[in-house]
């Protein structure tokens, strides 16, 4: 009989991720705070829905969580109706939320008291990656726990790697977001500069993307940036949540992040322009006259 | 009979570039301020050397210049012994220096009075690109002037594109350097963060380079950055010269470059650490305890 798994949190990421598990042949039980989403999910994919995280997790070998932030995560994992109340010894809890390393370590310890394994496993690849089953997963935790979860995560991952002990997945995701902040701000300053200088920026990008200035953001975002199109992609609100986590972590370990802190403030300006849901590349929007 | 061309400025870039012209079958006459370099060049490649830029340029269909900055450029182009004093009507002057758009427009006007075409044609690809004949060339100027020079520049270019009127090549190069400033600072902040957090940064980069944080700098510089190796590549002194040009241009057109200006200041700190000749990726060095 196929594995019983459960998925908690059917947002833009979790909804298709849970769908890939069901399509891969697992018996999936889902839970979502807004019940209608869970109903939509079962009509689309089959599977089961549950009335609480604990009920969804009951009897599952693997429980996946993908929610908004540290507080959401604690609320679906801990307490009377949380997943740990339903899980059995030997099962594994995988958290796909981008959250702090601290909450990951906290949950690993609590889960261990019930002999439940825990992995922090934030993803990158965005909504498109979730829908196509092509996510990249950065994992922290114990190797034997990872070994149990990895084959199942392959249902929606293009690349999945254990990077070290618990918390390491979250720290790696922070590195990812810090890099993106620098790349996008540099690209936005360059495009604004080029537009004000009257250049054919698309032609310039075609040339400079062949060399040391090249980046994924340059190749995949310059056209929409030049058109001022931002109604897609990874939202500014989520980026600010992630950067806040990185900045707090940096303060704990004495890492100076001057560019990241500045770009975070620029995203505040984008939010003030009404850009809460705009793509991360909207840093260019705040430079317009 | 093959074309007569001349090359002024046999630095780390110009020396191999002029060599590629000679190897491609052109009759090359070189000039260099330090005469020994010109002597070394003729012993290695053949060709001729001249006692002044004017003498080198005399009788050439195309004259290439690759020197340090605006002032060096004016000194080899203008005046009694400058290239324009030796050039004939109908010839073309190509400037490979990374310089200001202003000096490019100034020289185009002066050259036009002698019916000499002018192109600003800064390159990217570094010393390795010059040696392998794989440079990228960003060109500004008139299409008919470009048509005369392009086939010859192919001796050392992988990619060569006319981007618009005179000055456009320099403006494109500025966009290139602005992008690099953001990418490298983001990467440096991320690697410093990861090292202080105790991560296996090479493993993290292997994962995050598959997604939206990817960049040429990440792929080609993270290993040397993690080892603290900076004795190669594009020097901090040159990067600061280029960023100064971009910042001055930005002030003229009202483009705000907050990240670029900050990173330029960080390069000052790298210079103060003795890193004048270190690679651009040495932004990480100033973050060490």
UniProtKB/TrEMBL annotation, chains A, B:
Active site: 173
Xref: PANTHER family: 3-HYDROXYISOBUTYRATE DEHYDROGENASE-LIKE 1, MITOCHONDRIAL-RELATED
Protein name per UniProt: NAD(P)-dependent oxidoreductase
Keyword terms, alphabetized: NAD, Oxidoreductase
One Pfam family, short name: NAD_binding_2
Record flagged with keyword Heme: no
Gene Ontology BP term (one): organic acid catabolic process
UniProt organism field: Bowmanella dokdonensis
InterPro entries listed in its UniProt record: 3-OH-isobutyrate_DH-rel_CS, 6-PGluconate_DH-like_C_sf, 6PGD_dom2, 6PGDH_NADP-bd, HIBADH-like_NADP-bd, HIBADH-related, NAD(P)-bd_dom_sf
Family: Belongs to the HIBADH-related family.
Stretches assigned to the 6-phosphogluconate dehydrogenase NADP-binding domain: 5-161
GO-annotated molecular function: NAD binding; NADP binding; oxidoreductase activity
Positions of the 3-hydroxyisobutyrate dehydrogenase-like NAD-binding domain: 167-284
């Amino acid at each position: 009989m196929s594995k019983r798994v459960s998925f908690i949190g059917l947002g833009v990421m979790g909804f298709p991720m849970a769908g890939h598990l069901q399509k891969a042949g697992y018996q999936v039980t889902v839970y979502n705070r807004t019940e209608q989403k869970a109903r939509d999910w079962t009509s689309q994919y089959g599977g089961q829905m549950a009335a609480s995280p604990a009920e969804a997790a009951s009897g599952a070998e693997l429980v996946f969580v993908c929610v908004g932030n540290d507080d959401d995560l604690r609320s679906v994992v801990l307490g009377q109706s949380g997943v740990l109340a339903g899980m059995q010894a030997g099962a594994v809890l995988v958290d796909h939320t981008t959250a702090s390393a601290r909450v990951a370590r906290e949950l690993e310890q609590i889960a261990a008291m019930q002999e439940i394994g825990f992995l922090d496993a934030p993803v990158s690849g965005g909504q498109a990656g979730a829908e196509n089953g092509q996510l990249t997963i950065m994992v922290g935790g114990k190797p034997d726990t990872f070994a149990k979860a990895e084959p199942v995560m392959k249902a929606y991952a293009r690349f999945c790697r254990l990077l070290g002990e618990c918390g390491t997945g979250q720290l790696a995701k922070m590195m990812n977001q810090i890099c993106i902040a620098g790349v996008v701000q540099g690209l936005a300053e360059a495009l604004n500069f080029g537009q004000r200088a009257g250049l054919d920026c698309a032609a310039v990008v075609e040339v400079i993307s062949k060399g040391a200035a090249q980046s994924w953001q340059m190749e995949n975002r310059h056209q929409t940036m030049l058109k001022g199109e931002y109604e897609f992609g990874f939202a500014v609100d989520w980026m600010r949540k992630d950067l806040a986590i990185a900045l707090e972590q940096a303060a704990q370990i004495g890492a100076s992040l001057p560019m990241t802190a500045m770009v975070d403030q620029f995203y505040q300006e984008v939010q003030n322009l009404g850009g809460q849901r705009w793509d991360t590349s909207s840093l260019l929007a705040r430079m317009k006259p």
